Amino acid sequence: MKHWFAIGIILSLSTLSFAAEQAVLVEATGEAQMGEMDTPKEVMARAKRDAQNKAVEKAVGAFIQAHTLVSNNQVAEDLVYASVRGKIEKTEIIREGWDEKDRNLYRVALKVLVEPVYPEKGQGISLKMSLSKSVLKEGEEAKVFYQANSDCYIYIFSIAADGSVTLLLPNSVDKDNHVTQGKAYEFPSAGSPIRLQAMFLPGYKEKFAEERIKIIATKNEEAIVPLGFQEAMVKVYDAKSTGLVSELVKRLSQLEPAEWAEASAVYRIVR
């Protein structure tokens, strides 16, 4: 039995202006438990670090959300924007103290000013990709070719004009998304029952459109499917489901730049 992934369309993205360039003020609470060998000072320091880490994570989520809003819910570029980090500029203690019931538990609530940082990717995963054709007629099949410079895990997405995000790989037919350094791969793989077919979205009247395929490569396997990205044979997600993309972006933002890479390709579909 053959399985079909219907490729939608994505129109050219407008120039993005990032509203999240400004620092944000967030509040977060951290805690730490005192052990037999700990001093109160060490416990307090751990609790503060815990609160600061939570504050940065919350701020990064705010940066991503602001970006998504200004880009009019066009989530394709969110996967690139995931490299944003947070840098603490100021910290103010709101309250702190030992728990009344558990005297070994220390909590501190902080108000933290976090500045966005966009580090350039240095050494790490390098990813190459291409498509079988740059122009496809409606109904024609396509293939995605890719290669990484190190062993890693590959996730392939299709992102359409309406903002829908479909996870193409891994899927129930091909669950193995691990690739070997320097080896060339293709999707769908040779002999696979899956077919990737170019199609216009329902109701689209123009003579041509563009589709974007994006590949994410990570050093370690990431639990992307549980985030809500169900494969195309089951379901795709519309523009209102940008929270699903934000969860992926949030996870990528927690990785070191050398631990992941992305690549994308655009091609035209014609009638």
Secondary structure blueprint with pairings:
Blueprint: E1 3-7, E2 24-33, H1 40-70, H2 78-81, E3 85-98, E4 105-117, E5 127-131, E6 135-137, E7 144-148, E8 152-159, E9 165-169, E10 178-179, E11 185-187, E12 194-198, E13 208-218, H3 242-253, E14 260-270
Parallel strand pairs: 1-12, 6-14
Antiparallel strand pairs: 2-4, 3-4, 5-7, 7-11, 8-9, 8-10, 8-13, 13-14
Descriptive account of the structure:
The chain is elongated. Strand 3 and strand 4 (105-117) form a beta hairpin. It has two domains: 3-14 and 122-270, Immunoglobulin-like, CATH 2.60.40.2550; 19-117, 2-Layer Sandwich (Dodecin subunit-like), CATH 3.30.1660. It starts with a strand and ends with a strand. It has helices spanning 40-70, 78-81, 242-253, and strands at residues 3-7, 24-33, 85-98, 105-117, 127-131, 135-137, 144-148, 152-159, 165-169, 178-179, 185-187, 194-198, 208-218, 260-270. It has 271 residues and is α+β, with helices and mostly antiparallel strands. It has three helices and 14 strands. Strands 6, 8, 9, 10, 13 and 14 form a six-stranded mixed beta sheet that branches. Strands 2-4-3 form a three-stranded antiparallel beta sheet. Strands 5-7-11 form a three-stranded antiparallel beta sheet, with no helix packed on it.
